[in-house]
Amino acid sequence: VMAADAKAPAMTAPAHSAGNGRRQTMELGMWVFLTTETLFFGVLFFAYLVMRLAHPEGFAAASRHTDMLMGTLNTAVLLTSSVTMALAVEAATLGRARLASRLLAATLLLGVVFLAIKGYEYRREYVEHLWPGSGFRFDGPNAAGAQTFFWLYFVMTGFHALHLVIGVALVGFMAWRLARGGLTAQSAASIDNAGLYWHFVDIVWIFMYPALYLVSRS
55 — phi, psi (to 5°)? Predict the structure, then answer.
């Protein structure tokens, strides 16, 4: 028995090391992915900066037609979702699968609320003929600059919404697996990686919010 006990650490140590290795590989892969996403959104923000310098009056006038109340509400929704996501990661790390599942479900719900509010904004902007193209209508001498602003507005927020849809689907899938099989079905490391992605999407919005909603209101 003593010989068997002596061999136990030697048998479990490689497995523990392999688990840590997989977790580190997953984290590295996620950070590499987020780096590429940072470059992608960086190009959009750079285009926004160049066009804003070229059309300052048009951007200011167009920004006044965005719904600051809805934009501010969505910012609060995403910040709250970051809190629930962080708590879900902590709960999973502590082995509390049921709590982690519920917190992931709350994060998912907040993401859906954000998308619903954004959809409401898009509909209002469509009714007001602010979609760029042949139907674009904007009074005043800065119509060209305003249309450029709304091109960037819809591209930037559209890609952000697409990333959030992916995050909602991922978080929902993980919550479902946790509810069915606990942490044996969905590891804490994978939830941690999902948290990194979710926080990244939230950070992108934190930069978009003042750029798109507060241009002429500061």
Answer: -130, 65
Residue at token pair 């066009």 = 51
Residue type, 118: K
pTM of this prediction?
A: 0.87
DSSP 139: -
Contacts of 159 (CB under 8 A, 6+ apart): 40, 41, 44
Upper half-sphere CA count for residue 28 (Cβ side, 13 Å): 6
Exposure letters 100-135 (e unless 16+ CB within 10 A, then b): bbbbbbbbbbbbbbbbebbeebbeebeeeebbbeee
CB 213 within 8 Å of CB 117: no
pLDDT tens string, the chain, 218 residues long: the values are 434 444 444 444 454 454 566 667 777 888 898 899 999 999 999 999 999 999 999 999 999 999 999 999 999 999 999 999 999 999 999 999 999 999 999 999 999 999 999 999 999 999 999 999 989 999 888 899 999 999 999 999 999 999 999 999 999 999 999 999 888 888 999 999 999 999 999 999 999 999 999 987 65
Q: Following DSSP, what letter does each residue of 117-143 receive, concatenated?
A: HHHHHHHHHHHTT-SSSTT----STTH
- Angle between helix axes 143-181 and 56-63 (nearest 10 degrees) is 50
Q: Which of 57, 51, 106 is nearest to 77 (CA)?
A: 106
